[in-house]
Amino acid sequence: MVLGYRRWIRENLLREEPGPILSESILQRIWFEQLVRDPLITLEGESIRLLHPGIWNHRPGPDFLQASFSSADGRVLTGDMELHRHSSDWGAHKHSSNPAYKNVLLHVFWQADPGLIGSFPAGIRQVALEQQLSAPLTELISLFHSSPAEVLSGEKPGQCHPALLALPPEKLKEILEEAGWHRLRQRRSLAQARVGSFGFEQAVWIALAEGLGFSENREPFSSLARAVPIRKVLQIPDPLERNAVLYGVAGLLSDPTHSRVSEYALPLLRELWARWWRVREEWAPYILPGSGWRLGATRPNNSPYRRLAALACLSYPFVWQSLMESVRRGDSACFLKMVGSVSDEFWDHHAGWDGRVLSSSSKLIGADRAMALLFQVVAPLADLTELELGRRMESWPAGGDAGLLRSASVRLLGVPFPPSDVRTHLAREGLLQIYKDFCRAKPCAQCSMPEFLKSR
Ligand code: SF4
Description:
Blueprint: H1 5-13, H2 24-32, E1 40-41, E2 47-52, E3 55-56, E4 64-70, E5 76-86, H3 89-92, E6 104-111, E7 125-128, H4 137-144, H5 148-153, H6 161-166, H7 169-198, H8 200-212, H9 218-227, H10 230-234, H11 239-250, H12 266-283, H13 304-314, H14 317-329, H15 332-340, H16 367-381, H17 386-393, H18 403-413, H19 425-439, H20 449-455
Parallel strand pairs: 5-6, 6-7
Antiparallel strand pairs: 1-2, 2-4, 3-4, 4-5
Helix pairs in contact: 7-8, 7-16, 7-19, 8-9, 8-16, 11-12, 11-13, 14-15, 15-16, 18-19
The chain binds iron/sulfur cluster (SF4).
Iron/sulfur cluster (SF4) is lined by residues 158-160, 411-412, 438-439, 444, 447, 449-450.
């Protein structure tokens, strides 16, 4: 018997137990595009209507943030949504004990595990999608099946990518750089407000800390820079005590007698702990809750422990003075050289106190992060006119294609990195801004970007 392709897919790839081809990323895409029935029926039999799928969260935490739906009694509810292949994955991933999931109102999965029905946290509606798609699953799978680049970036090309890529390079560059200027002006306004409130030096310190925090730990780093202002850091003459204060106030210093510490980390941790214990009382009101850090959310090389070591290195008084001057002058070469050369005997090889040893020695601030810091620290705070800054930025490196930039590029341009003739520092930031303003906010069907492109 000759099977049609469609039937073959149905019978071979879509078993009752969904195989790897029905990945969570395909389910996420289905949800994002709202290709589900209206209304949806929960496991308890309630009819709910999906009003907005939520903001697709490509970071750790629930899959979609601030989804909204109306309940059977007509109330509109807004909360996070978590998606799995199996209903039991909620328990397997220990979401109930993870505070990042405390705002989840919807748990959506492909199939419900029969024995587990009814055993979920109260207040979270459970929805099995298996019988509730608005199009045949086979077609959705072939539509959303991902290429390796897309898997890597967690993204799919969006609706406007053919139009964007079809633009002449100079036009595409112009649009991306416009968005880049928008991003830069926002940052300069914020930086100026901070300079007015806290002074130039502290504004640099906060911007640097936030940049080192990446998006995952931006807030705790920002809080730390406020709790331990650079003025106070510079007043501490002993480098080990400076580090002890930074790690101690961050809540990232463990008592070596009560925590799991590797033999390599023990000597350093003991020294820091002894110093911290002497000054702890003084800093007690400022200590950050350790729970604010997303320790498992980053690759070991980018762990907050290592980023904090980088911040501590840059706060050495003579280093700090030169760094500040390079920011003030908008001297990108000097800034990149300084942040790219920070090094620490222990943290160059380790990712935490618990013995996580890096496979090879790794720079505390890699080239990509250093280039991102140019835009986060130097561009907003340089004492230059916009015209002069724009002129200088033309020679700033465009940076690599890792992380969010790859996602933005796949989504907006359909390729894992922007074409070489539009790769400028400002165009890169513009691409990220468009991705943030449009792609992470709404599905393509509700997006005004195609209209905007027509108008251009
Ligand atoms: S969300 Fe908007 S900007 Fe993003 S790919 Fe879709 S149409 Fe384009």
